[in-house]
User: Fold these one by one.
Assistant:
Number 1:
Amino acid sequence: MKELLAHFNKAFESKARLSIMSVLMVNESMSFNGLKELLALTDGNLATHLRALEEAGYVLVQKQFVGRKPNTTYQASEAGRQAFTEHLNALEAFIRTI
Amino acid sequence: MNEHLQTLTEIRSLMERSSKFLSLSGLSGVSAGIVALIGAAVVYMRVRTDWLSVLPYEKLANYGLAQYEQVHLFLVQTAMLVLLAALGLGILFTVRKARKQGQPVWNMASRRLIWAMAVPLLAGGGVCLALLQYRLLFLTLPVTLIFYGLALLNGSKYTVRDVEYLAYCEIALGLLALFITGWSLLFWTVGFGVLHILYGMAMYWKYDRNPTHQPAA
């Protein structure tokens, strides 16, 4: 059991972060507002989780301006994709053991 | 344990919901099909030929110029009306379903779906305009089927997978109609009318009636 849990990734401990990663896995990139709409999180909450993922190197951030409005889009990095897949595999293996 | 299972289910749902537009209503298909049937009936009554050899190339070739222009104008006008009515009703039912699901209609997924379909459709529209200009009326109807099928095939990546099968049927019918030229109105009626109604009813039964079968639920 201990062995299985070793593959659980601390960065994905919160459900919000797991949700963000799962959206970024299937979408090439996603805007802040797009994520907010899908996950139904508050601005501050979402920004905190995104920053954590960015610091872990799992998410790439791109800041642009559309006219005068800032438009930030997020992308899953290669490391993020790998970490997410491993985490999911661990989750699946864990569930299978029960 | 239960918590982890639930997490997995939610991840699946999010992945699907964020990349696909799942609010497409079966009733949209049925209404588009009915509109197409009405349109085809109107054309049939107006052009009034043998049902199985509707709009044969030979007959069109015998039309005088004035008569051809008249039929031509009538067909284009009817086609436009059918298109507008089908689109309007289709959007209406889909918006209604999205509201019921509490999902936004205008989001990333729907924009992608519309773009994926718009490109082949506009290209097909261009081809049809050219065919009409060269008086190749008998080719126009099959070509609308083929390009519509290609648009569906392209769009099926961004919505329920079942659209893919409808796409193959439309393309096959269009190709068949290209070779069996005498029956183009009949092929068109089957493709846009009958297939839409069958597909719409299947979708309605599969997703709309019974919410537990909802792919993203």
Number 2:
Amino acid sequence: MSRDGGITLCAAGLKAMFVTEAGFLKAVEGVDITIRKGECAALVGESGCGKSVTGLALMRLLQTPPALYTAQKILFFDGERATDLQTATEAEMLNVRGRKISMIFQDPSAALNPVMTVGRQIDEIIIRHYGLNKKEARSRTVGLLRSVGVPDPERRYFSFPHEMSGGLKQRVLIAIATACRPALMIADEPTTALDVTIQAQILRLLRDLQRENNMALLLITHDLGVVSHMADSVYVMYLGKIMEEGTTAEIIGAPLHPYTQGLIKAVPSLDDDSAVPLQQIPHNVPNPMKKPSGCSFHPRCAFCTGLCRAKMPPLIEYGGGRKVRCWRYIPDSSANGGGDD
Amino acid sequence: MNTRYVVKRILYSFLILFIVITLNFFLPRLVFEDPAEPFLRGIPDDEFMLRNAVRKEFGFDKPVWVQFLVYLKKFVTFDFGTSYIYKQPVFKVMFDRIPWSMVLSVAGMLISIVAGIVWGATASTKRGKAVDNALLNYATITTAIPSFWVALVFVMLFAFAVPIFPYRGAMTDGYSLSINKAVFFGVAAGAVALTVVLYKLLKKPLIVFVTPLAGLIAAVFAAVPASDIADIAYHAALPLIVICLGSIVSYALMVRNSMIAVVNEDYILTARAKGLDKTRVLYGHTMRNALLPMVTSIGMSLAGIFGGSVLLEKIFTWPGMGTLLLEAQNIGDFQLAQAIMFFYSFITIFANLLTDFVYHKLDPRIKAE
């Protein structure tokens, strides 16, 4: 996919936590993400790793309170201009959301207002950002519905969400998210709630729209099959931290981190007819309120050492822009015992 | 909403109404050993001729099933008979009282709904803060204390101990209200016409509720002299305070809870991700969904608008339908009691029907089966 080198979004040191009755829940602990123009970056991890919170935090959509978030910077490049979303005012954010960065969510059935026609829900974003009147907005909406593959868009304009299938609803949400041709779309598990045949259609649609509009895509998913189809680069996230990052070919072809290796081994393959049972990563993701000491993955890791239990490894450069957070790739790590937080 | 559903719902309502009417006929005949007894009071037992004449006059000499048919025929023609207490047609007696009940209930409902929405919406956005905690604590207290007790205490405190408010009645001297009936019905008819026109133009279902109410209030202010309105307001203040103390909280709590549920819905996130500002998200998406349960609740309390509250009216000697029902029941004026019961049921059934239809318009998910 097109990669002209320019950067669309560059976030550094993104942290998000929730104030709960039981204490602080650190959902995201210092994440750096860079998304190039027109590329598809995937954020991968199991449930409860802080992927969705990262996506919401980038758009500053978390409710504060109970959420708190900070970042060193969240630079968004729009042509020549760079805006720091971290310091932007709420009024500036309102002009970024929907117009520059848009978002689609996991469950299309819950993401549309049940008492409003889908047409009106698409009109709304067009009217908001382009200041068109209702009639003009409507003709654009019908065009959008057609472009996302909704059959009979003139009639569907008047449909309510409950009158549509899950796949159609997700198409409507994609229409909303592409209405203003944003530079970046954040897609949070866009196909998880859909059945497999529809998943493929929706992914193809997303990829076509991405190419057509030269739009960057941050794809949040747990599905490595989706990643290998769609993504140019991959961020593997575990308990609020990036564990490994690199190009899709590198990550899928030669994973470095034991967690990434575990995720890939856990994907069933149709070609694999051996009698070896499907491998899985032992245990579940720990409660984010009670994170393990040292490397947060150590209780589930086959290569765990005393150092892993004691200290969190830093995210180090492995060569060729590839990064990994694991003591195994840090020379003399047992000797110097260095590391960050 | 298809025609079949509407017809079915209306027929069903008529069935319920018929059951109510039937019960209404048999209940007094079960209560009194001789249903003619209230009509024969004061006539000595040995005046057989006179007693039989009265029986014949009111139809008690015929078999029960004939009486029932006669009764049905009268109901269909809205002939509820004559009140034993007032020696006037029951219909007239009732309709003299309805406006008085409405003064309390309409004003009480309006104040509670508006204040309830404001309080509830504020509390939902400031969870755990003072506004919210006040609502929750206050709700616990008011649901635990019955309103008639509050009414008695308030009469003691604010009408006797510190006499700021009158302790009884609806006006200072009698109920000599000069209503300009032509003006009243003129404005009211205008409001109905306006409702129809506005609904046709704007297609907003809430118009069905709001416009007639506004029209009614306008009609009252146009037809009744200002000095009388001031006098009634002065008398209504204490009962109104008691009504609102309880009902504001129940509306506020409902709004708060449904707002909190709706705010966490994904579609609110979608709306915010579109770049809509707070106000548009609140009115365009949150409120619209959060206030749906309110429609049911308001519909249910419509019956109370005409019916009034029996206990509160009794305590404040308010000349409404509630006190009328008590009078009729105590004296055994069962023609009147029957008519009032019928009226209550009719309004309740009608209000339910109306709420159903409005709800259908507001929430497209509800499909008629």
Number 3:
Amino acid sequence: MKTKKGILDSNLFYTVLAIMIGFCIGAIFLVIAGISPAVAYGKLIDSVFSKPKYMVWTLVYAAPVIFTGLSVAFSFRTGVFNIGAEGQYIVGSVAACVVGILFHLPPVVHALVCILAAAIAGCLWSLIVGILKTKRGIHEVLSFIMFNWIAYYLQNYIVNLPAIHKQSGGEATENVADAARILLPEGLMRSLDCSGANWGFVFAVIAAIVIYIIIEKTTLGYQLKAVGFNKNAAEFAGINVNRSMLTALGISGALAGLGGAMQTLGMSGRLSQLAAQEGFGFEGITVALIAGSNPLGCIFSGIFYGAMKYGGSKLTMVKAPSEVVNIIMGCVIIFIAISQVFKTVFTSIGKKKKEA
Amino acid sequence: MDVIITNLGLLINATLIATPPLLFAGLGSCFSERSGVVNIGIEGMMTIGAFIGAVAGLYTGNGWIAFLCGGLAGAVLGIIHAIVCISFHADQTIAGTAINFLGTGLALFLCKALFDNSSDTPALDPASKLPKIFEGVFKTGSFGSNVLNVYGVAYLVFVLAFVCWFVFYKTKFGAHLRAVGEHPEACESIGIDVYKVRYTCVILSGFMAGLGGAFVTLATINQFRPNVIVGQGFIAIAAVIFGKFTPHGTTWACLLFGLCTGIKTLASMSNTVSPNLISMIPYVVTIIALILFVGRANAPAANGKPFVKAR
């Protein structure tokens, strides 16, 4: 009885339930579109789990969204809404790419310098918004949205600069130096049979653990959470609210910037001209929501999202629109959002049974 | 002199094309935000409006009916947002994020299902688009043609802006909706149905966002493509905050955006500066305007907070 109550109380149960409902609703739309859900979902699962290579690809897809998810989760926990992770991700990937092309450093050092540059770029991009908020009182959501678009055009501008633009045409930059890449050692890569296998996921897990420790185990984390929970009370307790907010935004921005570095140094190896925002920042919001803003949870929700992205990209093979993934994700978020209602209903049913 | 007048005409024309989608969505969003429900799902609502508008245009051949259908499609997402946020007390930011996924996902999914895996709808013929008001009166390319012979809806939306202002400040419903966003408990105690007011406002917000989206596919261009809306919903939200959550403020903010987009369009015709730098103009101008003139925008007190009825 106790265990049953424990399950009904746990958030994980409702998250899994929400994911299942999301898939059911996705199935309804597939049927409407005249596609067998069994075939589509079979393909989805098959293209993630059937070979070790595919699972490695899933982790490769997961790394950047774990970082942007961490970024958003951290901001949620500290009381701001970082809808600007998209822009910070972009400036992060731009910084990593530029440093990766223009500098010539020994291996490992070069990669670390690129990663550092990305973190600083993301951090500064987010801090500008923080300063606008603390000094001029400008709503952070508003300036984040503006800075997302400025970052977007900035990337397209920088990609086309002659110093780094690819010599032989194409809408992309040169490849970053091999020393700056964060790919797995060649032997390992060959045995995994995955050309994109890189350290990004390992970095993401380390970052998640570090952020978890900062939030849960340090004085800094306590202060940031206090400001997020109740600004006035925190100020009354002697916490410098503005400085805390800037710290929170800086860390959040750096995390999103790191996500950009993982994608550039790990998977793509260069920057391309963007035709639309890639959405890593907005996917980060979803990852954070599914994880309930828990940094460790972001690892798992990031893997889930990575699997859906990678598997979804293969759905066209069975002629199913890959956008069914977005529909499923939308439903999952809605049902997580209203899981409190389920909780109340289930708990009251449980109580009634007990009384009867 | 002639060059200046021609360019001015082109600028006004470009502004009148860029502003209406933002203004429709922004005005709707004013209702939602002022009644106390954050709606960051505008983007998704505009996208589904744009898609359904284009499809209805294809099947009915009547621009006005199609326009209305686009609005209704947005309203359907508005209803979902309202149920989740108001009746189920869910976190409004989370729900809005979900609406964005659903709106864009559904539009592209249905598009591929309906049109043989193509992510674009077939092009509409001019007759089934929204009508221009002075078709054939002015010489093509003249100042009069550029300024006056635009899609009728582009002028209608400014009338709508006035109507919204009137509703907000001169009617009982307007007073109620503003009060509900500031202090729902007090409203309930004097017998205002908080839920009813909020439902109306959120659904209205979806409807108008849908109209904004439909304007893009039925006037600006003539088909639905995956990137027709991209970002405009978020710009509309920005405009509402910029306009301090008032219909008139939002109107000016949307016009500023529209004007900057117009300048962008004109400037990119001459090939001297990188188009990417020119494209930054609307966003940089907004930030500068905020730093210099606007400053603090205080959201309605109860914005984003679920309201639980007293038992």
